[in-house]
Amino acid sequence: MDLGPAPPSSAITEPVPRPLLALLRRAVLDHAVSEQRRVFPPTVHVGVPGRATATLPLGDQRLDHALRVDALEAMVRRLRAGRTGHVPALVWLTRAGSLEVRDVDLAWLSAARTAAAELGQALPMVVVNRRSWREPATGVQRDWTRLRSPVGAAAERR
What we know:
- The chain has 158 residues and is α+β, with helices and mostly antiparallel strands.
- It has a single domain, classed as Cytidine Deaminase, domain 2, CATH 3.40.140.
- The chain has 4 helices and 6 strands; from the N terminus they run αββαβαβββα.
- The protein has helices at 18-34, 65-80, 103-119, 151-157; strands at 43-47, 53-57, 90-94, 125-128, 132-134, 141-143.
- Strands 2-1-3-4-5-6 form a 6-stranded mixed β-sheet, with helices on both faces.
- Strand 4 (125-128) and strand 5 form a beta hairpin.
- Helix 2 packs across helix 3.
- It starts with 17 loop residues before the first helix and ends with a helix.
- Residues 151-158 have low confidence and may be disordered.
């Protein structure tokens, strides 16, 4: 499968910068806290975990590449609305199961890279489950056995 063009900063490689690690950990934590079902449809998220995000539950939708790209671009533009300047964004796909690379992961990775090229900004993309995240192209990932909220996050949710 062609992964399309990618701006150099879209792929997540080692060493992962600390601010990005914190955001990705937050995406895993938010997913673990918010999704209680064992089986659920994949959902695409765009934005900054813990802050402004746009989501698209996939369900049984069979989107082609062009529609996936359009959806991601619309989600990024929605986040930009009312704000001036560049809005950094991340794309993450939440789904059940292990983080072995699946067709849905590669389809959304390809769409994220194409959208990044069309928007002229980096759109790093990861797949998230309840205990880990993984970048499908590079294989960089982090896992937690017991994921706990940071001390400040508990007060933030009250």
